[in-house]
Amino acid sequence: MARKRKTEKSVEKVRGVASVEAARDWLASRGIEDIECVVPDQAGVARGKMMPVQKFLDGPTMTMPSSIFTQTIAGDWPEDDDQFQYDRADRDMHLEPDFSTLAVVPWEIDPTAQVIHDAYHADGRPVEIAPRQVLRRIVGLYENRGWVPVVAPEIEFYLVQPNKDPDYPLQPPAGRSGRPESARQSYSIAAVNEFDELFDDIYRFSEAQDLEIDTLIHEEGAAQMEINLRHGHPLVLADQVFQFKRTIREAALRHDMYATFMAKPMSSEPGSAMHIHQSVNDIATGRNIFSDREGAPTEEFFSFIGGSQKYLPAVICMLAPYVNSYRRLVRSASAPVNTMWGYDNRTVGLRVPMSSPAARRVENRIPSSDANPYLAIAASLACGYLGMVEGLTCSDPVETGANDDEIVLPRGLLEAVALFEDCPELVEIFGKGFVTTYRAIKQAEFETFMQVISPWEREYLLLNV
Fold first, then answer.
1. Beta strand 147-160 pairing with 224-229
2. What is the SS3 assignment for 353?
3. What domains lie within the chain, and their CATH numbers?
4. What's the half-sphere exposure (Cβ side, CA atoms, 13 Å) at 303?
5. pLDDT digits over 65-102, tens only?
6. Residue 87: CA count within 13 A, CB half-sphere
7. Is residue 37 within 8 Å of 117, Cβ to Cβ?
8. Contact, 30 vs 102, CB < 8 A?
9. Angstrom distance (rounded) from CA 434 to CA 297
């Protein structure tokens, strides 16, 4: 059973305006003193600057070094190679605020607001490797065909005890009973209630930012939760996931816990996913093109699935972006290891939930929760788009369990990025600049990982080889 409610305290909806003039009034009416100017990087980390409101309103266009989009999760930069060329001058890029994302920062003591920015070159061109611009590029392909994609993400995460030494395994936190979970508690209301005060803060912070939670449930793992968002435009929902992650982390810290979106934070527990529900509407009519006027599935619906089946293995590096992500993709687990599809079947990579014809959609169950939401949504939609424009067909739906079958997805990060770079259809629609940059970042992250000696190596090699 899911928990679906509002907090007891009514909070005014205070999200988004249309112009800098409206922003000036919005900020003044709320007594905002500081503003966080943020941009999501390749990992989905918030980069940016904080400044006084008056400086933000009166100053010139904000700039930041372009290198923030080539930085690894470890804070390093890739080396140059034949394809990827690092800008050694580290030129500035211009950041333009998207005032529709203007919102308060409810956990700050002083009155503070936040606004997400878009990145542009000095000549006005979008920075093609910026994740928000990457998603815009894919949505633009749909719009050129008279379509608009609709998505609804579901984000899983774990609550864990504070862990200040990375050599020690993570542990579930104690709830209000004083005891950590010791058994699987899927959909348990009592297990959610263990963290009532934390979730009250999450709901309160979300309402203050006008972020809409559809449902909150307890997932399979110990202190593993899932938040479902309402459906909407891909860029809007990617922004919400980006802000939700930060919101949940901040709320957890207030209660002496960590919230982690690692794909596989504990070896004995299930991994965490970011399922993406997808449909496509006709711009002119608003009709879901996955259903015809009689309510039957259309050719576009089956082609969307066909494109997902063909191309998802080649974009897995954006759906499972770290070495840890591939620990989640194992047989006989809650994570899919295939690109099969089926009606209301949770063991396949592509599930079609039971719904009315107007709500017919495809749920991509492959992405992990550590994925950058802008890139994961862009990658998933790109596969379906290619299927529709190429007129691909899909396999027959699977009616039985499928996650004991052969693993057809890449088994590691290097294999995944090689598939991405070697797919000409994907290189064309994502742009060679982004593909080579993303590949270089992931290769650099893998090299950093290889410098760490794991407990497995000490356990089995120290005295045996």
1. antiparallel
2. coil
3. 20-126 (3.10.20.70)
4. 16
5. 999 999 999 999 998 887 877 677 788 999 999 999 99
6. 15
7. yes
8. no
9. 35
